[in-house]
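Chain A, query sequence.
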Amino acid sequence: MLIDSTRAYRPIWFCFRVLAPTLFGARSRTAYVYFVLIHLLITFMFPMHLLLGLLLPATPAELFKNLSMTIICVGCSLKHIMQICHLPNMMEIKALLLQLDDCVQNGEEHHYYQNTLHSQVHRITRCIYISYAIIYVLFVPGVILALSAEPRELLYVSWLPFNWRRNGLSYGLAFGYQFLCVLAECMQGLTNDIFTPLTLCYVSGHIHLFAIRMSHLGFHQMPEITTYQQLRSCFEDYRLLIRIYQLTKETISPVQLIQVVFCGANLCIVVFYVIFFVRDTALLMYNAVFFAVICLQLFPSCYFASVVAEEAQRLPYAIFSSNWYEQSHQHRRNVLIFIQMTLRLAKQPMMAGGLIELNLNTFFSTLKMAYSLFAVVARVKIN
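Chain A, predicted structure.
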């Protein structure tokens, strides 16, 4: 089996090539115009178009539906902008993963990669693809109902600079704009929601593979010079690990801060809407699925951030488990320095915006935050 960690990233690069071709080598005037238009009309104008729609008269059902979609789109656009700003880091992470794959290709830990890390990656991507498939399935009935409604309706209550009810052409332009924007926002959301858990999974897996390699060091009867070369090779691999760890931490930090805040707000809105306004079974099921999809956006990132932290804490013990005590004084001193270096890694957890430590506690804290917001809003409504 040829190890290639970058295969799982192909849907992300495809979405980026569609949304931002100029960042992948396209230098024609048409590509630049396309890049500017798609980010002006979709990334910036569509959330603004929904935000202004909140000021228009609407029923509570329309208001909460629009508010929930507005929060999703604003968060998605902000995360997409952050990812574009960190795209060079993402490309460097891709290159570093290929280098780490070469280290694993012929090593003893190859078996772990095949049976554990590879299956974890497939589970992550499968869960996220299923969640987006559910979103599209739930989106189709809304499109059909909006098209068949009398009088005419848009997908979401929103402000437009023209009267879209005037004639069929105006309605078609308004409806088509919302439809295309939702599809583009889903592509942006796909890159946002896959990259972080996927990268964290690979980082945790490669730290584990490195720990296996280090724990076996010195147990084979080899000349001292060979053991020294193996230790030096481990130093070089650790340098790659540190670089990919720091790049991942820097790249996902702003994205995950936006994710945590906006997921908490959206969960609060969904719960409040279901409890006080939903009386239809179909709408209740729709919002229950929507609630689960929002949780699924945040949970994989928090889970694998916890796994990365655990693997980083185990790394010094794995190095200490090697056969250092039968080696030369120089080798033992190098191992001691190595352990001290890895202890620093455990003190640098993944952060969301440099403010919130990203782990499973963050996920449950987000749920608690959503409940707290709901309790405040519910009390205001009751009073």
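Residues 224-276 form the longest helix (53 residues). The first strand starts at residue 351 and ends at 352.
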